[in-house]
Design a protein that fits this description.
- The protein is an alpha+beta fold.
- It has eight helices and 16 strands.
- Strands 1, 2, 3, 6, 7, 9, 10 and 13 form an eight-stranded mixed β-sheet that branches. The chain has a five-stranded mixed β-sheet with strand order 4-16-15-11-12, with no helix packed on it.
- It binds zinc ion.
- Zinc ion (ZN) binds next to loops.
- The site of zinc ion (ZN) has 7 residues, from loops.
């Protein structure tokens, strides 16, 4: 079993310094991870974090939103990133509901130029949770303000370790899912996206600029919902457990 010990140690130190909850991380855990320079690069050299809203029709509907006719992006600051290692992850208890949104996350390895294939510009993928302060977001929507406070808070960009990108066709063969306390709450497949990876990269390249180290959270399927203190979240790629954490509201 391969584990990114160096990176986790750095993270552990940072979290201990910030007086967060006790870190529970044991070497030789069952979480999958790559090792080596390339993979630790993807953990530390994150540039921009782009996120796609309403990219699954069933999720747009469950929140009462119209089905979009073009991709819709927002961003998270890099300060929001936290990697799963089985640990408790802290969220505010005084900002209303904290919702999970499980998503496929892709990492750009270089700038996209028209004509390039996806696997020339996406080198790695992970699963992520786009944590959202849903009540704060509803308030911001009503005031027609940007979503930053509802989407960009510390630990709101959860990531499992990265894995090599297998190509979009291979992605269609595997579902991703989120379990809360051992029960599947979300289950999706890249084929259900309203805008596929090519469309997202075309749009983001044109309107936002995309380059090496940029991440894209590609949207969440239906089933989003609130977390409670002590909940255990497990992110699965098919049958493989890619990451786990628990929730510490406080
Ligand atoms: Zn999302």
């Amino acid at each position: 079993m391969r584990v990114m010990q160096g990176s986790f140690r750095r993270k552990d130190k940072a979290m201990v310094k910030s007086k967060q909850a006790t870190i529970i991380y044991t070497a030789g855990s069952h979480l999958h991870a790559g090792r080596g320079r390339k993979d630790s690069d993807s953990m530390t050299n994150i540039r921009n974090i782009f996120c796609v809203g309403r990219n699954y029709a069933t999720h747009a509907k469950e929140l009462g939103n119209a089905i979009p006719t073009s991709p819709f992006f927002f961003m998270k600051p890099t300060n929001a990133v936290v990697f799963t290692n089985g640990q408790p992850i802290a969220f505010p208890a005084d900002q209303g509901s904290v919702h999970y949104e499980v998503e496929i996350v892709i990492r750009m390895s270089k700038k996209y130029e028209p004509g390039m294939k996806l696997d020339e510009v996406i080198d790695q993928m992970a699963l992520g949770v786009d944590f959202t302060l849903r009540d704060v977001q509803d308030g911001l929507k009503q005031k027609q303000l940007p979503w930053l406070l509802a989407k960009g808070f510390p630990n709101s960009a959860l990531l499992t370790p990265f894995h090599p990108f297998p190509g979009e066709a291979a992605l269609r063969e595997t579902n991703f899912s989120l379990q809360k306390n051992g029960e599947v709450v979300q289950n999706g497949n890249v084929s259900q996206m309203l805008f596929d990876l090519q469309a997202l990269i075309d749009f983001a390249t044109k309107h936002l600029g995309l380059d090496a180290g940029d991440l894209i959270y590609t949207g969440t399927p239906a089933g989003v919902g609130p977390v409670a203190d002590g909940d255990r979240l497990s992110l699965y790629w098919g049958e493989q457990l890619w990451g786990e954490c628990s929730i510490a509201l406080g």
